[in-house]
Design brief:
By secondary structure, the protein is an alpha/beta fold. The protein has a single domain (2-297), classed as Rossmann fold (3-Layer(aba) Sandwich), CATH 3.40.50.720. Helices cover 38% and strands 17% of the residues. The chain has helices at 11-22, 76-99, 134-147, 172-180, 199-211, 229-240, 250-257, 259-265, 274-279, 288-297, and strands at 2-6, 26-31, 41-45, 50-51, 61-64, 106-112, 123-124, 155-161, 163-165, 196-198, 217-221, 270-271. Helix 4 (172-180) links the parallel strand 9 (163-165) and strand 10. The mean pLDDT is 94.
């Protein structure tokens, strides 16, 4: 299979590249200038609506993971970059698909559980309505931009990722220093649900969607085991052999991180991976403790 991949240098994307190559797929990575371009790389620049179409004239699938990192204080400029990096990149890919003589069978794009907003203890599946907030609006428009490929008879899948756990990147490496000093603990009340998924299962779900022609539309990529922030904190501390007794007050998080704290750190989304379970996906790490143990073992 020939696969075109965006976001290939990210910690999820790099793991996807490795998994695809291990199973014998041919991978072309979309990269941004001014990097040195290798034979399996194609230059694109969504901000300038540019994609070099000369190198690759056909592919069997596109996996679209590129987007501005969410972490950092959400200034208006930061929010604009987050939004445009996702929407413009998606639109550029769909325009590219429209021009292809031989179109890909599937477009798999990233999205996020932020689509659901702050929903307390409500159990959320792919059929649940959209919530409120900036992340919900970004996810809605991101998914809609990618679904435009369906007009060209391309199956589309929108992967709504929870927090992806790995020491390679993402949120976990940022949590480890305070926990290692016995300073880690719940954020705010700690009662908020925080959907998570092991990196191995994030990659596994992407490959599963790649191969399963019946899977389409939004797909929740989260563990089937839902935990609160307090439960997560206790489990991480126990896995590291540390104590967990401190709590970071919500007002401190809001003062430091502003809107990001309200929508990402303190919001509660109890998400269920209904479509993956119904389709028969077998999670490698359904439980949080084994996932964290495996992730921390990577550092040893």
């Amino acid at each position: 299979m020939i696969v075109l991949l965006t976001g290939a240098t990210g910690f999820i994307g790099s793991a996807v590249v490795e998994a695809l190559r291990q199973r014998g797929d041919e991978v072309y990575r979309l990269i941004r200038p001014p990097q040195l371009v290798r034979s399996n790389e194609i230059v694109w620049n969504p901000a300038e609506n540019f994609l070099d179409k000369s190198k690759l004239r056909r592919c069997d699938a596109i996996i679209h993971l590129a987007g501005e990192n969410l972490y950092g204080r959400w200034t208006e400029n930061k929010k604009r970059r987050v939004y445009q990096s996702r929407i413009k990149g998606s639109q550029l890919l769909v325009d590219y698909i429209a021009e292809m003589d031989r179109r890909p069978r599937v477009l798999i794009s990233a999205s996020g559980v932020g689509y659901y907003g702050d929903r307390g203890e409500t159990s959320l599946t792919e059929e649940s309505p959209m919530g409120e907030g900036f992340l919900a609006e970004v996810s809605r428009d991101w998914e809609a931009a990618c679904r435009e490929a369906e007009k060209h008879t391309v199956r589309t899948v929108q992967m709504r990722f929870g927090m992806v756990l790995s020491t390679r990147g993402g949120a976990l490496p940022k949590m480890l220093p305070p926990f290692s000093l016995h300073l880690g603990g719940p954020l705010g009340s700690g009662r908020q649900y925080m959907p998570w998924v092991a990196l191995a299962d994030a990659v596994g779900a992407i490959l599963f969607a790649l191969d399963n022609g019946r899977l389409k539309g939004p797909v929740n990529v989260v563990s089937p085991t839902q935990v609160t922030n307090a439960e997560f904190s206790r489990t991480l501390a126990r896995t590291m052999g540390r104590k967990c007794f401190l709590r970071v007050p919500a007002f401190v998080l809001k003062a430091v991180f502003g809107q990001l704290a309200r929508e990402l750190l303190l919001s509660s989304t109890c998400v269920v991976p209904r479509k993956l379970m119904d389709a028969g996906y077998a999670f490698k790490y359904a439980g949080l403790a084994p996932c964290l143990e495996a992730a921390l073992a990577e550092e040893e």
